[in-house]
Amino acid sequence: MAMQNELAKSLVKKPSTLLYPFEKYESIPGSRGRVIIDMTKCIGCGLCIRDCPAFAIEMVGKGITCDMKWYSSRCVFCGQCVEVCPRAAITQETDYDLASDDKSSLVFEYTRPRQS
To answer: How sure is the predictor about 40, in pLDDT bands with cuts at 50, 70 and 90?
Structure first.
């Protein structure tokens, strides 16, 4: 009898899950997601590369003229790069949905604005 009551209750209740990927969760404030590198603030010191435990950041070039690549497929979203950056050039958004079947779309390139 108890099971019949539970079945009757669940027929009128909404499901507690979402139909992902058609419905998406709101991201939680303060959660760690996509890494954003502001190349106008970056001084090319390389501290983010040295502190990254997953080797998810790559510097192309040297110093103030370098460009950066962030490999989201390698990243463990620990936030070490954000904490160690002396110029606050690296931030993390709350965007959690980064999955893709194309590995090249998981590499984010950040280039410096070229002055003419």
So the answer is: very high
Locate 59 and state its tokens: 């510097």
Say if residue 113 is preceded by a cis peptide, omega within 30 of 0.
no
pTM over 0.70: yes
For 115, the 3-state DSSP assignment is: coil
Mean pLDDT for 62-77 is 94
DSSP code of residue 25: P
Q: Where are the beta strands (DSSP E) in 1-116?
A: 35-37, 57-60, 67-71, 90-92, 107-110
**What are φ and ψ of residue 5, in 5° steps?**
-65, -40
Contact 72, 34 (CB under 8 A): yes
Per the structure block, which two tokens stand in for 3? 């099971």
Three-class SS state of 105: helix
Instruction: Say if residue 81 is exposed, middle or buried (CB neighbours under 10 Å; 0-12, 13-18, 19+).
Output: buried
